[in-house]
Amino acid sequence: MRKSGILMHITSLPNPYGIGTVGKCAYDFVDFLVEAGQSYWQILPLNPTGYGDSPYQSVSSFAGNHYMIDLDVLIQEGLLKQEEVDSFTWGESETRVDYGCLYNNRMKMLHLAYIRFTPDQAFQDFVEENQDWLPDYAMFMTLKERYPGMDWQGWPEDLKLREPERMAAVRQELSYPIGFQYFLQYKFFQQWTALRAYAAEKGIRIIGDVPIYVPLDSADLWANPQLFQLDDACRPTAVAGCPPDSFTADGQLWGNPLYDWDKMKKTDYAWWVRRLRAASRMYDVIRLDHFRGFESYWAVPAGDKTAAGGSWQKGPGMDFVGAIQSALPELDFIAEDLGYMTPEVKQLLADSGYPGMKVLQFAFDSRDTGSARDYLPHNYTENAVVYTGTHDNDTTIGWFEAISDDDWNLAREYLCDFYTPDEEMDRPFVALAMQSIARMCIIPMQDYLGLGTEARMNTPSTIGCNWRWRMTEDQFTEDLCRDILAQTRRYGRTET
Fold first, then answer.
1. What are the pLDDT digits (tens) for 56-80?
2. What are the tens digits of pLDDT across the range 127-137?
């Protein structure tokens, strides 16, 4: 059956404490989705963010983001007092996240909650159940505090190389801050598990992203350097990126370390299996970021200033996909197959059976009519997920305001049955996505709200101004809910 959902990250939910959390605002959003006839809630990665606040550059593939721990729940549990929370400033704008403010003030609140926390059996069980990642993560974050502004490659050699005697001594010496990190993860997963159960009870499935790469300065690399293309000093020999194209003459230099796929294969991709099993604790459907990188990836020599000098290297392909499907047969995936597609990538997608992605904003590029045709709705197959745009795109209104006249004319001609000259283009675009044959349709909340570029979530290759947009409480109106429900019913994406 064809169904639909809304793309809305947790951090974008309205909340009095500066950022969306997994508390009441998230439960209210689940209720909104149900009333609006939706079946899916797509979010971005829930892992803790590092420099730049990007959920796609996380310090851990396994941990949860402590920014999303709900303070009101901690108040209800007696770990915080309302007057304590109210004594802090959480940002000047209800439409923008102030990460600097959160970094300074939220951690003070969480430390105070930890002081009052008494470990119980549930906590002990959580620690025991997560031994495969939690001790490494807690130690990593603690050492990051001890050596501020320094990546782990710059730590003392015995810590950098994780010498057992030194590691044991540090665990004793820093037991309190390590325990604090345990506490943060316990509270995040306690709250998230309850929210996910509520969503499941209401018939809402959660779609979450798993980025293909991890940052150099992460617990993942520190704990598993042998699985990456690193030299003897634990520095990358090559890094990830994208080749030059008609949009970027130098390509995109992401800078993430690359996997040593040969070594991963010898373990039957055990680290990836653990990573995706952990992701299944967070999400019902997993969107695999940069799926084409599993077929072949762009490798840039370490130290290059642009991605232009890189080369294509063969990825693990169907051997990896088959191993994942064998180890985790119950998981549902979406393949993020955007970007430079080759027959080999298309074949891998077909062999995997995963639905790919169709983004309407990519369908009307007058400079690239070949690949653009793949994104026109009349060329879709049922096994696909259609979007007006993603977190990396401008809002639909913002996009239409920025495109060329030639692109505008292409879109207007294609939308002749949906568009009238006196209306904004967000509604016709949503209708176009909804009426397509694609089994799943996901619309960013900004497009339902008719917002412009000011509400864009991320502009790739920029830093310092992304991941900040928030929805306000007064934007959740009955009219909005009725409108979304009407469109969902009109195009046959709800059972009622």
1. 999 999 999 999 999 999 999 999 9
2. 999 999 999 99
Task: List, by residue number, the catalytic residues.
Answer: 289, 336, 392
Residues composing the chain: 496
Tens of pLDDT, residues 7-44: 999 999 999 999 999 999 999 999 999 999 999 999 99
Q: Which residues of 309-345 are buried (b: 16+ CB within 10 A; e: fewer)?
A: bbeeeebbbeebbebbeebbeebebbbbbbbebeeeb
Furthest C-alpha separation in the chain: 72
Phi/psi-derived region of residue 494, left when phi > 0, alpha when psi is between -120 and 50, beta in every other case: beta
Dihedral, CA atoms, 6, 9, 15, 17, nearest 10 degrees? 180
Q: Which CATH number fits domain 1-207+471-496: 3.20.20.80, 3.90.550.10, 3.30.390.10, 3.90.226.10?
A: 3.20.20.80
pLDDT at position 421, please? 60
User: What is the rounded CA–CA span in Å between residue 272 and residue 227?
Assistant: 11
Where along the chain do its domains lie? 1-207+471-496
Per-residue model confidence (pLDDT) at position 423: 63
pLDDT tens sequence across 192-207: 999 999 999 999 999 9
